[in-house]
Amino acid sequence: xxxxxxxxxxxxxxxxxxxxxxxxxxxxxxxxxxxxxxxxxxxxxxxxxxxxxxxxxxxxxxxxxxxxxxxxxxxxxxxxxxxxxxxxxxxxxxxxxxxxxxxxxxxxxxxxxxxxxxxxxxxxxxxxxxxxxxxxxxxxxxxxxxxxxxxxxxxxxxxxxxxxxxxxxxxxxxxxxxxxxxxxxxxxxxxxxxxxxxxxxxxxxxxxxx
Length: 210
Description:
eight-stranded mixed sheet; alpha/beta
C-alpha cells in the first residue's frame, strides 16, 4: 500500500464522499482510485464501479493489477457513450478474474440520469444486502464526460441524491473529475457535495476536508 493510501485511510471514513481531481487516464489517477477502493481489506469489501469512459473489463483489470485478492462482491455499471478511451483497447464485457464474475449493469444513454440513479440504487441495495459487515466502496469514473450530455444543474442534483444514498449505506465513495477540462466555478459547484477533495499539490496527493 502506498504512503498516500495510508494517509487517506486516516482521513476518510465510512459514509463519506470524496472528489478526486486529476486528469483522466493518467497513471496517478488510476493508482489513487485503486487506493480508495481498497481502504478496507478487499476480502471484506463490496465494490461498486460506475464507468463512463472505460469498459468493465478495463476496470476489473486495474483491480487485478493492484490487489492480490478479489473483493467479496462487485458490480460494474457501464454507461454507454458513442466513444471510448483510446487507451481502453480490446476487452470483453464479461472478463474473468475478480469475484469470479462481477455483476454488469448497463445504462444505454449517458443523458438518462433517472435510469442511472435507479441502477445505482438497486446495485447498492444488492451489495449491502449480501453481507451487512462488508465495507461498500464506490468509484464513479467520471463526472467530466457526463457534462457533455447533461447540464451542470441536472448533474449537481443527481450527485446530491447519490451521495446521500452512499452515505446512508455507509459507503466510502469517490467521484473523479478532470480539473483541466472545467473552470473553477464548475469544480467549486461539485466540491459542495463531498466531504473532502483529493488533488495533486507539488507532485503529492493532498486530502482537504471540506
